[in-house]
């Protein structure tokens, strides 16, 4: 009952229909790699409402408002759909027309610019990051800030609260990071689309500044056109991360090697034993267990960071003593350290394959090209 907010990622199977033109533009050049739109996929930001209505045969009013875009600005568009959808349910199509009229006034999303975007009587202040931004200068942390009833500041267009989103799997953080960076197939089973979508999006964000290059679906259903492809048993599970809520997937995807089962998160004490799953070795019938957990036989190469676990995961810290923003920064820092430790040896290896700077000269390239032309002639 009530309203549900989540996002989806769907494959683009052709050009837009019904007059809709969602072709990619060049305005995003200069953005960080993780914010570059993928021409093969759309993001959909969904605001779903369900309320009792005895006048309807099913007994419920059910409707969704969906905003489609190629831009992976998760935080930004989550705010936009929360602003548009309630107005639509109250005032009807006129509010959608007004919102579209506002969006038509928005300038192109050029990285590095501070944008002032009107939307239904409010002005949104947001800056799009660039790939040259230093880590300390990247868009700010924290939730949406309301300066007044008519002015809203969004510190980041895409940053998630990793601590909150990954709270159910923090006890297995190093193993989860290892599964993501080695491109293992993972299914996330949760009680709500919101929890699944945020967890899947947070998983692919663990590799920052690298971009997760495989497919991922924050919320996947049996109605997806690729349902048969992802659930087939005739071949190995595809390299994809799926977020699902339908109990039907418990049996359909029981052959997948890595399954994360989420439980309801306790807002009063997120470190309680009930809300923090542990790693369990996969065996037949395991997924019938309703308790949260990480079901996998994978043996990670990384050892658990006991200091990180003590600071972020341990329930010995009294609730409220450490702000959520601080916890979020600690989780991001730990993920960045893991990714950096993975990148540095590769950078050294690639650097050894490159010629020395003193040996690189455009005149030598020209001489080589002239010689090649002479040989062809």
UniProtKB/TrEMBL annotation:
One of its GO terms (molecular function) is guanyl-nucleotide exchange factor activity. Transmembrane segments: none annotated. It holds the Pfam family DENN. GO terms for cellular component: recycling endosome. Residues 1-377 form the UDENN domain. Residues 264-293 are annotated as: Disordered. InterPro entries: cDENN_dom, DENND6, Tripartite_DENN. Belongs to the DENND6 family. This is Protein DENND6A. It comes from Geodia barretti (Barrett's horny sponge). The lineage of its organism: Eukaryota, Metazoa, Porifera, Demospongiae, Heteroscleromorpha.
